[in-house]
Design a protein that fits this description.
The chain is an alpha/beta fold. The chain is built from twelve helices and ten strands. Strand 4, helix 6 (113-128) and strand 5 form a beta-alpha-beta unit. It is globular. Bound molecules: 1,3-dihydroxyacetonephosphate. The site of 1,3-dihydroxyacetonephosphate (13P) has 14 residues, from strand 3, strand 10 and helix 11. The site of 1,3-dihydroxyacetonephosphate has 14 residues, from strand 3, strand 10 and helix 11.
């Protein structure tokens, strides 16, 4: 299904739909198992990189298979959307629409404003003919690479959102309020340190910008990218078993919980699943160096990811029970 009804219900109900990225079978199994067991609507996201890694035909049929798998698990009416994450050209978006995706993102946020509008509108005009919903992006996600900490100019400008949404006809809008992609969302210089634990404490998200956007566009579906919380137990496990992830830090879950209750109705999570996968695999490798059957380390990785996805659905996004 596309995202239209999912988002309308999520905004009304004060929760957010999980958007989990996948590029392999174990991730997909874990996502579907978690969604089926909690009866949560779910967005399966495929990035350009995932398409290149896993092959687009295979991913498409995996997603189709996932719907059947969900039913086998006892979820009578699965609510699953197949979404292109960060499409960067009309051609890529068109190819996903033609391929049966139910939703696409055109991310032209790095282009000048008018060019962002023109490209987004072109994608919307094409996708809507097939009832495929379109997510667009306005503002640039702050990142560690940016060097500039919390620069206001990187945030979405609330004064632009009405013009952008009206002229493009997009169905949802990804905004920038201080999140970023990856497991290093803030430099140590941008954070403070908890004196007791020595852990980094990140700066808060710009909820004032979110509020201003919601005031301009009441009831319009807002999307948060870069919303992994980088669970410290996975970072610790990775480091304990031979990995090296110093000072990895994400978005605290209570801030995501707060966002989910607002017009933010899609929250993107990818890195947390990568961390869970890696932590579980490293543990098996460290504890059982003689193991060479991939099922013996991918299996535990899948279990840990399932646990993670369920936790996000129930304790962070509040989407459990919304797709009975
Ligand atoms: P994370 O890296 O925080 O998981 O963000 C994923 C994302 O936004 C995909 O578009």
């Amino acid at each position: 299904m596309n995202t239209r009804e999912m988002f309308a219900k999520a905004i009304k109900g004060g929760y957010a739909i999980p958007a989990f990225n996948f590029n392999n079978m174990e991730q997909l199994q874990a996502i579907i198992k978690a969604a089926a067991e909690t009866k949560s609507p779910v967005i399966l996201q495929v990035s350009k990189g995932a398409r290149n890694y896993a092959n687009q035909t295979l991913l498409r049929y995996m997603a189709q298979g996932a719907v059947e798998y969900a039913k086998e698990l006892g979820w009578e009416h699965p609510q699953i959307c197949l979404h292109l994450d960060h499409g960067d050209s009309f051609e890529l978006c068109k190819s996903c629409v033609d391929f049966g995706f139910s939703s696409v993102m055109i991310d032209a946020s790095s282009l000048p404003y008018e060019e962002n509008i023109a490209l987004t509108k072109k994608v919307v005009d094409y996708a809507h003919q097939y009832d495929v919903t379109v997510e667009a992006e306005l503002g640039v996600l702050a990142g560690v690479e940016d060097e500039v900490s919390a620069a206001v100019s990187h945030y979405t400008k609330p004064e632009e959102v009405v013009d952008f949404a009206t002229r493009t006809g997009c169905d949802s809008l990804a905004i920038s309020i201080g999140t970023s992609h990856g497991a290093y969302k803030f430099t140590p210089e941008q954070c403070t340190r908890d004196p007791k634990t020595g852990r980094l404490v990140p700066p808060p998200l710009a909820f004032d910008v979110l509020d201003a956007i919601m005031e301009q566009l009441p009831g319009f579906p807002i999307v948060l990218h870069g919303s992994s919380s980088v669970p410290q137990e996975y970072v610790d496990m990775i480091n304990q078993y031979g990995g090296k992830l110093p000072d990895a830090v994400g978005i605290p879950e209570e801030q995501l919980r707060k966002a989910a209750k607002s017009a933010v109705c899609k929250i993107n999570i990818d890195s947390d699943s990568r961390l869970a996968f890696t932590a579980a695999v490293r543990k098996v490798f460290a504890e059982k160096p003689g193991e060479f059957d991939p099922r013996k380390y991918c299996g535990p990785a899948r279990d840990l990811m399932t646990e993670l996805y369920k936790h996000k659905i129930i304790n962070v996004l509040g989407s459990d029970g919304k797709a009975e």
